[in-house]
Amino acid sequence: MEDKKSNDDEWRKISDYSRRPLRSTSTATAQDSQFGSYSDCYLLLGELHSNSHTSDRNHGTMSPPSLQQLLERNRAYTPTHTPSPTIAEMAASGALETRVLIVTCVDPRCEPERFLSIAPWEALAIRAIGGRIEPQIPSILALDTLMNFQELVIIHHTDCGGTYFTKDGVAGVLKERVPDSSDAIDKLKFGDFSDIAGSVKEDLAVWREYPFTSKQLRDNSYGFVFDIKTGELTKVDP
Predict the structure, then answer these.
(1) What is d(CA 204, CA 169) in angstroms, rounded to the nearest whole number?
(2) pTM of the complete model
(3) Is the Cβ–Cβ distance between 162 and 132 less than 8 Å?
(4) Residues of the domain holding 219
(5) Is there a single domain that holds both residue 62 and residue 172?
(6) Do 146 and 88 contact (CB within 8 A), yes or no?
(7) What pLDDT, in 10s, does the model give residues 15-59?
(8) SS3 183
């Protein structure tokens, strides 16, 4: 119980920190040190995504971009855009013969396209908080009817945000926001977990026991943990 309360307190601390007024490097204070340097972390993430648009950082703005800034980036990008083929065009050329479907976390530190060196359409990835598979199963089933995947891979990662909150902690915040909806909130699932390898095992079991999955993907489903510090994948046996 104490560990659970500690996790909830830590999540609230991080959540409160993320809601602080956004600041540039010149106005950052020692407050940042409780989670490391905000500016340094932002620059490090930028280095990890060296192909991304970096004009805001180059102009000295260390805050994440607003929607308006993103739309401005799109206007700058549009003249350089190369048209993508339609699904019908890809099917005619055999480009839809993708073998592997990956289910992983929405966290930008865990990008299978990067750590698996995946080119477009070599494999497809579905991403959600914690990489939890249960909420994604309807989407996976729909995609599989189109793509006929041969292998399914679940990849969770170290230091996942899903280990920083609990169902009770998130529910508590929501009940403060909407006090009259406690019963509905109690029925929600948020994908929290404490054991990363254990969460992969749970998701493999959920997938393999689901009644509408294909035998091909039930028999050829695998789980891994991605280490954000080393870049290594460690296989998790069911």
Answers:
(1) 26
(2) 0.74
(3) yes
(4) 96-236
(5) no
(6) no
(7) 554 444 433 333 333 334 444 444 455 455 555 555 444 444 444
(8) helix
Beta bridge partners of 235: 224
55 lies in some domain: yes
- Alpha carbon distance 56, 144 (integer Å): 39
Provide the number of structural domains found in the chain.
Answer: 2
Give the whole-angstrom CA distance, residue 102 versus residue 169.
29
Q: What are phi and psi of 102, to 5 degrees?
A: -110, 135
Look at residue 114 and give its three-state secondary structure.
helix
- Characterize 79-91 residue by residue with b for buried, 16 or more Cβ atoms within 10 angstroms of its Cβ, and e for exposed: eeeeeeeeeeeee
Where are the extended beta strands (E) located within the chain? 100-105, 123-128, 151-157, 221-226, 233-236
pLDDT for 145-174, tens place per residue? 988 999 999 999 999 988 888 888 889 999
For residue 10, give every residue at least 6 positions away whose Cβ sits within 8 Å of its Cβ, in sequence order, or none. Answer: 164
Edge-to-edge strand ranges of the sheet holding 100-105: 123-128, 100-105, 151-157, 221-226, 233-236
Tokens at 76, concatenated: 């700058």
Instruction: Clarify whether residues 104 and 215 are in a common domain.
Output: yes
- Within this chain, do residues 40 and 103 fall inside the same structural domain, yes or no? no
DSSP 8-state secondary structure symbol assigned to residue 165: -
**Is 215 part of any domain?**
yes
